[in-house]
Every structure is written in structure tokens, then in C-alpha cells.
Automatic annotation (TrEMBL):
Keywords of the record: ATP-binding, Hydrolase, Nucleotide-binding, Transit peptide
GO cellular component, one term: GET complex
CDD domains named among the record's database cross-references: ArsA
GO MF: ATP binding; ATP hydrolysis activity
One Pfam family this sequence matches: ArsA_ATPase
Name used for this protein in its record: ATPase ASNA1 2
Length: 380
């Protein structure tokens, strides 16, 4: 079948060989050629395009613990700021290391200006404990142990039993993992929407290690269902005890906490939408060339795709730089790294991503000049 014709080259057929590759069958005169090309989903733009638009963009960097997420996130933030973008870099990892990376005290849960770059660069280390407390205080007065105690004290054991069956007490006393990070992200979204912070055109999240991110992604649906149950139960309880409650004068307080829960649910949905927004968001996976890290990255990538999170780039950090004379240890290490890098090429999840290799450098990457150096290697 003739699809397109140029004076010299004829495309006579094309076939989708994998979800991310198209095979083109070409003919030039009597000779045949087969060419594999990436589908548009594959093509991640370079840094110039990442910095081109003035529209606000969010970048989330995630991966296994210790692979260099913070270093890559901080170096991207410095590069954006030096390209004229007022930038905010946020750590939602409970074990923050932004302060160490910038060699500056950024603790305290407030925006701190980072000294050095050409345009404003601010950093924020979010305190996840505070976010968790917010959830606890909202739920405990609206269907958790607070309501359970109240029901018990009113002798309404049956409804209290229902609470037990739903395991709500458990849920509310130990909030699900990932919730603190989701709340932290939604808080950042709230304040960057205010006119005071509208100047930020690039917002970078240095996220918690993979496990947290995976849970965070499935959290909105889980919470949606759980909070939905709590609110339904809350409604039942309100009806059953309205007469008693009016005597005790608790109506106002309960309505307040129900509002809070509904707002929390809305915010979780907002976070999910942000993660899925292909126009404004990109999730960048950071890994190292080891079999374990690549396997974990592959699982992360599959989960991101399942959750419809846009992912185009894979940074393989700490790759041994070329050397003419490897010692025995380095030669072994290089062999291992080559094997891991080969895994990426045949991994169905990772093979279509834009691969960025960052070398293992012989100095610790700390402070803006070092981050600028790393940024110029990674973000091209
Ligand atoms: N390419 C590199 N070459 C040399 N050292 C590096 C490189 N990338 C990161 N490092 C160093 O590795 C250590 C861990 O890096 P970093 O804190 O960025 O990782 P992380 O993935 O954010 O860790 P965590 O999961 O603990 O937050 C740091 O000491 C950092 O300076």
C-alpha cells in the first residue's frame, strides 16, 4: 500500500512493533529499507524546550532511595533559575536533604531564598508530620475514634460496630502511607495559586522514595472511597443522634469537621489531576545502573503509566566515566553497570523513555556551583 511518496524514497508500509515504536518499510528504487522510529509519546524535549514556555510547569523527580533524586532536582532548579525562570523546589521526602544539597539551612517549613542563581530560586522543605496532624484532627472529630467514643457513650453500640467493621478507627489512627506527601503537595498547590506566589513558573518536587510515590498515586482513589464511607456514616450518625446532639450542642463542630474532610478529599483529587496533567506536569525517574535499581524503576514506570502520569525521561545517575585504565574493582563495576544499562534497552517499560546518563563525579555535589556543574551535564 502506498502511503507517502517523495522523489526518491517511498514509504510503502508501516507497522506498530511495540506500543512505543513504529517500523517503517521504505523503498528507494529497487532497494528496501526498514527503519524503526519512536512514536511521539517517546520524544522528550531537551532542556531548551523544557525552559521555553512561560506557562507554569511542574516536574516531579522520583526513584529509589539514595540514587540522586535530590541532586538532580536541585540541579534542575538551579538550571531553570539561571535560564530566567523564577523557580520553587520543594522536598516532600520525610527525610529531607535539600538543605544538604544546597549547603544552606532550608528547614522550618517556609520558603527560603537560595543564594547564587540569576533569577529567584526558593526552596521549601515540607514538614510531613504537620500535614498528617491536619488529617488526624479532621477525621477524629468526624467519624474516627472521636465519633466511636461518642457513639459508645450514647449507647448506640450497633453503629459503633459498623465503624469497627469498616476498620475506620485503624485507618484514621494510622493514616495510609503516602498521605502526608499528598497533603504536602496539595498544600504547595494551594499557596502557589495565591497572587503572592504567582511568579513561580517552574515548580520542582523532590519526592519520597518509590514506595511512597506508588502509594501516593493510588491514594486519591483509596481516600475517595474511605472518606466517602466516613461521610456517609457521619450522615447516618447525624440522623440517628440529631435529637441527642442538639442537647449537647455539638452540631456546629461536626459540620465544621465534615467540611474539612470534604476539602481534604477535593485536594487529593486535585493532586491526582496534577500528576496526570500532560500539559503542565512531567514525572522524571531517577535511577542508578544496578539491576536492583533498574528493576524498581521499571515497576515505578509501569505504575506511573497505569495511573496515566506523564513520564518521558529516565536519568541513569552515577555511571562510571570512561577510562583507559580500569583497576580490577572498576572493571568489575563497569561490567555490572553495562549489564544494568543493557537491561534498560530490553525492558518494555523503560526502553521507550529518553535516557539521560549522568556520570559519577569524584566530588560531592553540594552547593549552587556544584549543582550548576551537574545541571549542565544532566539537563541538555
Ligand atoms: N552523579 C553523582 N556523582 C557523585 N555523587 C553523587 C552523584 N549524584 C548524587 N551523588 C551523591 O549521592 C548522595 C545521595 O544523593 P541524593 O541525596 O541526591 O540522593 P536521593 O535519591 O535524593 O537520596 P534520598 O532517597 O535519601 O533522599 C549524595 O551524597 C550526593 O552528593
Amino acid at each position: 500500500m502506498l502511503l507517502t511518496q517523495t522523489p526518491k524514497l517511498t514509504l510503502f508500509s508501516s507497522r506498530l512493533t511495540s506500543p512505543r515504536h513504529v517500523c517503517l518499510y521504505l523503498r528507494r528504487g529497487g532497494a528496501f529499507q526498514v527503519r524503526a522510529i519512536a512514536t511521539p509519546a517517546d520524544t522528550a524535549e531537551g532542556f531548551e524546550e523544557m525552559a521555553a514556555s512561560t506557562m507554569r510547569k511542574y516536574y516531579m523527580l522520583g526513584g529509589k532511595g539514595g540514587v540522586g533524586k535530590t541532586s538532580c532536582a536541585a540541579s534542575l532548579a538551579v538550571k531553570f533559575a539561571n535560564s530566567g525562570h523564577p523557580t520553587l523546589v520543594v522536598s516532600t521526602d520525610p527525610a529531607h536533604s535539600l538543605s544538604d544539597s544546597f549547603a544552606q539551612d532550608l528547614t522550618g517549613g517556609l520558603l527560603v531564598p537560595v543564594e547564587g542563581p540569576d533569577s529567584p530560586l526558593f526552596a521549601l522543605e515540607i514538614n510531613p508530620e504537620m500535614a498528617r496532624e491536619e488529617f488526624r484532627s479532621a477525621t477524629q472529630t468526624s467519624g474516627g475514634t472521636g465519633v466511636k467514643d461518642f457513639m459508645d457513650s450514647m449507647g448506640l453500640g450497633m453503629i459503633a460496630e459498623q465503624l469497627g467493621e469498616l476498620k475506620l478507627g485503624e485507618l484514621l489512627d494510622t493514616p495510609p502511607p503516602g498521605l502526608d506527601e499528598a497533603i504536602a503537595i496539595s498544600k504547595v498547590m494551594q499557596f502557589v495559586e495565591s497572587p503572592q506566589y504567582s511568579m513561580f513558573s517552574r515548580i520542582i518536587f523532590d519526592t519520597a522514595p518509590t514506595g511512597h510515590t506508588l502509594r501516593l498515586l493510588s491514594l486519591p482513589d483509596f481516600l475517595d472511597a474511605s472518606i466517602g464511607k466516613i461521610l456517609k456514616l457521619r450522615q447516618k450518625i447525624t440522623q440517628a443522634t440529631s435529637a441527642i446532639k442538639s442537647v449537647f450542642g455539638q452540631d456546629e463542630n461536626k459540620a465544621d469537621s465534615t467540611d474539612k474532610l470534604e476539602k481534604l478529599r477535593e485536594r487529593m483529587v486535585q493532586v491526582r489531576e496534577l500528576f496526570r496533567d500532560t500539559d503542565s506536569t512531567e514525572f522524571i525517574i531517577v535511577t542508578i545502573p544496578t539491576v536492583m535499581a533498574i528493576s524498581e524503576s521499571s515497576r515505578l514506570c509501569a505504575s506511573l503509566k497505569k495511573e496515566q502520569v506523564p513520564v518521558k525521561r529516565l536519568i541513569v545517575n552515577q555511571v562510571l566515566p570512561p577510562s583507559a585504565s580500569d583497576c580490577k574493582f572498576c572493571a568489575m563495576k563497569r561490567k555490572d553497570q553495562t549489564r544494568a544499562l543493557d537491561m534498560i534497552k530490553s525492558d518494555s517499560e523503560l526502553m521507550g523513555l529518553n535516557l539521560i546518563q549522568a556520570p559519577l563525579v569524584d566530588v560531592e555535589i553540594r552547593g549552587v556551583p556544584a549543582l550548576r556543574f551537574l545541571g549542565d551535564i544532566v539537563w541538555k
